[in-house]
Amino acid sequence: EVLVEDFVRDVRTVGHWGTGDLEIIIQSKEDYEKAKIYLDRAYEKN
């Protein structure tokens, strides 16, 4: 999948707290609606 600039970023090569390889930046309800697919997918996978 293509990462959307200023919305998601690949953090595989960045030191960070937490788990996972994807950082989702949610700043509005619209961003949350866009992020739901990623959140649901992560929940179902784990």
| Total domains | 1
Separation of termini? 19 Å
Query: What's the order of the H and E elements?
Result: EEH
Q: How much β-strand is present in the residues?
A: 5-15%
Q: Care to count the β-strands?
A: 2
Give the averaged pLDDT, no decimals. Answer: 81
Gross morphology: globular
Structural class assignment = alpha+beta
Low-confidence stretches: none
Main β-sheet description:
2 strands, antiparallel
- Count of runs of 4 or more consecutive helical residues: 1
Please give the radius of gyration in angstroms.
11 Å
How much helix is in the residues?
Answer: 25-40%
Q: Order of strands across the widest beta sheet?
A: 1-2
Short description:
With 46 residues, this protein is α+β, with helices and mostly antiparallel strands. Helices cover 37% and strands 13% of the residues. A two-stranded antiparallel sheet has the order 1-2.
Features:
1 helix, alpha+beta, 46 residues, globular, 2 strands, two-stranded antiparallel ribbon
Describe this structure in words.
This is DUF2007 domain-containing protein. This protein has a two-stranded antiparallel sheet with strand order 1-2. With 46 residues, it is of the alpha+beta class. The chain is globular. The protein has one helix spanning 29-45; strands at residues 8-10, 22-24. The protein has one domain (8-45). The longest helix has 17 residues, at 29-45.
Write the layout of secondary structure elements.
Layout: E1 8-10, E2 22-24, H1 29-45
Antiparallel strand pairs: 1-2
